[in-house]
Sequence to fold (100 residues):
Amino acid sequence: MSRRKYPLKNYTLTRKQREAIAGRIRAAVKRRYKVDARFLEDYGLAPGTFGHWKRDGKLNVAFLARLSKDFDVDLTWLLRGIPPEEFPKERLETSRKSED
Fold:
């Protein structure tokens, strides 16, 4: 069995990455909600959630998937800041082949 080059168990986001992700989530939310509190209430999230995301980077994958669907934003953009039109074409073609 081969060892993974990049073990996942010790992977943590940098502060800059956490702040950027929280900022992109907030930007998506602002497209639909004028006030963060209303969004947090509608989604059953505690006040200060954005601050927690920035501090600890603990984001629930199911929540991100729902946010992506509900707000019609791409997960790659949410997590990495890369808009869909900038995805490398060869990666898209490879991933489509693997889905077949």
Remarks:
- The chain has one domain: 15-99.
- The two ends are 26 Å apart (CA to CA).
